[in-house]
């Protein structure tokens, strides 16, 4: 059984569209401060594996606005609660010419750990020692933690999903977080049904990549 560390039932339902056997686990892992999603999710996966004692999946996600140099990025949840979604939307739109779209991406990184090692594949592997390996330089340079404390150098496999869009005036009553100000193909995520949103979801795209790889892992 694969344990998905989340208390969000919507994430579990989405994961079950791609994975046959997955259960949710409520575990409050440490969210380190980093300028990229990968190290945050990787540290969480190591802690979760130590807690669960079996295969685990942890995700971290954020909104990356091009005109704001990727802000709020990994700090999206904190910024949502302190600055507010509408204000972030205004900052993004004010940062570009009125005729220029305020381009942005939603990104999600899934981190998988089962205590084992991984064969070489295109997906990055976080080995926890920050000396290179397969992590992109931008990710490996930003983690501010001592991985020898929890999880040691347990390898963690990373899978990323991204959906492009632009920041607009808030529209729609559905979704959550930045969904009302993020438009994809002419529709904000808050205007989409759950099925429509899942079909283009950054998390869904990461889950699809992970599920394809994980089927081979189980064989």
UniProtKB/TrEMBL annotation:
<dbReference type="GO" id="GO:0016787">
    <property type="term" value="F:hydrolase activity"/>
</dbReference>
<protein>
    <submittedName>
        <fullName>Non-canonical purine NTP pyrophosphatase</fullName>
    </submittedName>
</protein>
<dbReference type="InterPro" id="IPR002637">
    <property type="entry name" value="RdgB/HAM1"/>
</dbReference>
<dbReference type="InterPro" id="IPR029001">
    <property type="entry name" value="ITPase-like_fam"/>
</dbReference>
<keyword id="KW-0378">Hydrolase</keyword>
<comment type="similarity">
    <text>Belongs to the HAM1 NTPase family.</text>
</comment>
<dbReference type="Pfam" id="PF01725">
    <property type="entry name" value="Ham1p_like"/>
</dbReference>
């Amino acid at each position: 059984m694969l344990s998905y560390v989340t208390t969000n039932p919507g994430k579990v339902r989405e994961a079950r569209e791609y994975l046959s056997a997955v259960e949710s686990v409520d575990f409050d892992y440490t969210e380190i401060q980093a300028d990229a999603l990968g190290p945050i999710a990787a540290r969480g996966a190591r802690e979760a594996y130590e807690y669960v004692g079996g295969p685990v999946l942890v995700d971290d996600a954020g909104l990356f606005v091009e005109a704001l140099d990727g802000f709020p990025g990994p700090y999206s949840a904190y910024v949502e609660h302190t600055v507010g979604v509408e204000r972030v939307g205004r900052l993004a739109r004010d940062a570009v010419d009125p005729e220029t779209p305020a381009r942005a991406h939603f990104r999600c990184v899934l981190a998988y750990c089962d205590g084992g090692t991984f064969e070489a594949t295109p997906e990055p592997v976080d080995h926890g020692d920050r000396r290179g390996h397969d992590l992109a330089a931008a990710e490996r340079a930003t983690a501010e933690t001592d991985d020898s404390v929890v999880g040691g150098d347990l390898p963690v496999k990373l899978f990323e999903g991204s959906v492009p869009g632009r920041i607009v005036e808030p529209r729609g009553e559905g979704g959550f977080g930045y969904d009302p100000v993020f438009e994809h193909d002419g529709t904000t995520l808050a205007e989409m049904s759950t099925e429509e949103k899942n079909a283009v979801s950054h998390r869904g795209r990461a889950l699809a990549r992970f599920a394809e790889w994980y089927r081979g892992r189980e064989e």
